[in-house]
Amino acid sequence: MGDHTVGNLPYGASKGALDRITPAAARELAHLGVSANVIDPGPVETGWMDGETRAACVGRTPLGRLGTPADTADLLEFPCSARGGWIDGQSPHSDGGFSA
C-alpha cells in the first residue's frame, strides 16, 4: 500500500496545504482570539472503503481496527473546549498508530 495521495493529487495538495495554512492562520488570527487547528485522521470507517482497502488498513493499524467518526470527534472536542485554549497551530494525528 503506497502513500494515500498517489493517484489523487488534488487530495494530496489539499492535505499539504493544511500543513502550511494551519500554523500561518494560528499566527495571523491570534490577535482576534481565534485558534487554528486541523485534525489529521487516519483511515476512518465512513463507507468509502472496499473490502480490500479496509483489510489493508486494519492490517497496518496496531490497534487492529479502523477509526470511527466518534474517534475523530473525541479528538476535536478538547481543543474546542475552554481547557484546550493553549492548543493552537496544531495538526494532531488520530490514526490508531497507522502512521507509526
Description:
The protein has 100 residues and is mainly α. It has one domain: NAD(P)-binding Rossmann-like Domain (Rossmann fold, 3-Layer(aba) Sandwich), CATH 3.40.50.720. Helix content is 43%, strand content 4%. It has helices at residues 9-29, 51-60, 69-80; strands at residues 40-41, 93-94. The mean pLDDT is 91.
Brief characterization of the structure:
The radius of gyration is 15 Å and the shape is globular. It contains 3 helices and 2 strands, in the order αβααβ. It has helices spanning 9-29, 51-60, 69-80, and strands spanning 40-41, 93-94.
Number of helices: 3
Largest sheet: 2 strands, parallel
Number of strands: 2
Top-tier CATH class:
Alpha Beta
Gyration radius from CA atoms, angstroms: 15 Å
CATH-level-4 superfamily name: NAD(P)-binding Rossmann-like Domain
- Fill in the CATH topology: Rossmann fold
CATH architecture: 3-Layer(aba) Sandwich
Structural class: mainly alpha
Q: Termini separation (Å)?
A: 15 Å
Order of adjacent strands in the largest pleated sheet? 1-2
**Total tally of structural domains:** 1
- Report the sheet-strand fraction: under 5%
Order of helices and strands: HEHHE
Low-confidence parts: none
The gross shape turns out to be: globular
Residues in helices, as a percent range: 40-55%
Question: Please, what is the oligomeric state?
Answer: single chain
